[in-house]
Amino acid sequence: MTGKQRAMLRSMANTMETILYIGKDGIVPGTVQQADDALEARELIKGCVQQGAPLSAREALVALCEELGAEPIQCIGRRFVMYRPSKKHPRIVVE
């Protein structure tokens, strides 16, 4: 993914609500399933690592992206953004 494509996705994620939260249990199978469903439905999602979580936002982002085959887009503070094109209904065109 080029820097220009990543910048476009970052700008789209700017106004999005956080929909994925990682808590004190870290990344559990339910979290992975929730992220997978959200990526299939939305393609671009924003997540947050809560205060008592055992891992950092960057660690969570890398782990989830490896598990789901997604692309890491941005990680700032405790928030992160990842992207994966939908298999059934791709909506976001990355040029």
Describe this protein's structure.
It is a single chain. It is built from 3 helices and 4 strands; from the N terminus they run αβαβαββ. The protein has 95 residues and is of the alpha+beta class. It has a 4-stranded mixed sheet with strand order 1-2-4-3, with helices on both faces. The longest helix has 14 residues, at 29-42. The radius of gyration is 13 Å and the shape is globular. The N and C termini lie close together (10 Å).
Please give the count of helices: 3
Q: Specify the biggest β-sheet.
A: 4 strands, mixed
Per DSSP E runs of 2 or more residues, the count of β-strands stands at: 4
Note the overall shape.
globular
Strand arrangement, major sheet? 1-2-4-3
The CATH architecture can be given as 2-Layer Sandwich
Order of helices and strands: HEHEHEE
Overall helicity: 25-40%
Name the poorly predicted regions.
Answer: none
Under the CATH scheme, which class? Answer: Alpha Beta
Taking all residues together, what is the mean pLDDT? Answer: 94
**What oligomeric state is this?**
single chain
> How large a portion of the residues is in β-strands, by DSSP E?
15-25%
Query: Structural class per helix/strand content?
Result: alpha+beta
CATH superfamily: YhbY-like
Tell me the distance between the termini.
Answer: 10 Å
Provide the CATH topology: Translation Initiation Factor IF3
- Rounded to an integer in angstroms, the radius of gyration calculated over CA atoms is 13 Å
Number of domains: 1
